[in-house]
# Entry
Amino acid sequence: MSGDHYQAEVAIEDGEDDAAQQATGRPRTMTSTAEIDSTITHPGSVRINVKGAFIVDTPEQPGTPANPSGSSGNGYHETKDIRLPNHTAVISHIAVDIGGSLAKLVYFSREAHSTDPGGRLNFQSFETDRIDDCIEFMRHLKDKQLALNGSKPGELCVMATGGGAYKYYDRIRQRLDVDVLREDEMECLIIGLDFFITEIPREVFTYSETDPMHFASPNANIYPYMLVNIGSGVSILKVSGPRTYERVGGTSLGGGTLWGILSLLTPAESFDEMLDMAAHGDNAKVDMLVGDIYGTDYGKIGLKSTTIASSFGKVFRMKREAENEAEDTGGLSNGDDQNRRQEKQNSDQTSSTSSQPQQSQPRPTSSRASELARSRFSSADISRSLLYAISNNIGQISYLQSQVHGLSRIYFGGSFIRGHPQTMNTLSYAIKFWSKGEKQAYFLRHEGYLGSVGAFLKHQPRNWGRRGSFEATR
# Structure
């Protein structure tokens, strides 16, 4: 890592042997004994040569020669592989972060159909409800590991973190018949984030409507900072050093909340479909805005007319208007008018035979009125409104926590974000607005893979520390 503060946590190869490289014109493909001795002297984790690393932005073929059609089941392969052109050592493990909603997988592969040294980190996600698809994909990686990364059959190890590392521990071991090493979730998040901040160019960026993706340069001086990890729920961590952190807060209103409520209110069947609908929606048709109340900006306290005053604030009023319209136009159907008279008659009879005060009967709603009400709110509008509601809530809580702990750099991670412009703009605007520009929100291109990358980097080869054994496992 950049800086000595992280050398004990993740050992990074410093480069290639100059003499060998000059003689052959290509980076060598063997790890020297000196490098092995250096690594054992400073025991840490897997050695990754990040020299020249870059994110693959072009839509190339997947880097793994073992990526078969159909084997990924319902998995989603990220196109943002990280190319490691100078990494030569064999990597015989994969890592998975299994959360409440998604399982995120990271693995290394050589370049497909290439004799050049180096390889890439691949990223794959699965819905946790379909964890068997994820396990099947890992089984395929195990079967193809020789072609995939040069490791010998039987050497594969699974690094696991997140709640699912415990919930599905036995299932993974039984299906794959491999070692499964469980790592602490929060620690893995920090290790993964530190790696991205300090080592990967064009990974960390700020976001605004006028400057959508402004990249921050890798920097060794990164502490202290705050991590807001938004998965099914939200955890907020104060990070003071490589393994010095504390969870200072959070909220249960996270990605799982959005997913769950929109599953009830819209026909969307996946989280990405919900985000896609939100991108095409108009929250002003659902939310009550400052302009709806004042007719203009509320400049005295800095509120624009487009600021949300009440999430979903227009729904009840518009639903009532639809019901009244249906009644006025004779829109009652399916016997609702008869049912209403019968309910009124029953209510009158009950009132005359009881001395106890009666609660008012609920106002009956006709099928036609319900249809009219639903027609006024599209799934896209509802999706955007709820996305804003949850994102604004997270943004304000994050600002308050950063204020309490005196932190100016706030990193947002987790699969909730998914590179979605509305989400990032909402979070960024909230931090900027409440802090009056004194604090900065940062985002990552691999925001959902902090935990799995951290677990990947924590792997220690079998017999780690016994001189000679390290080379034998290569």
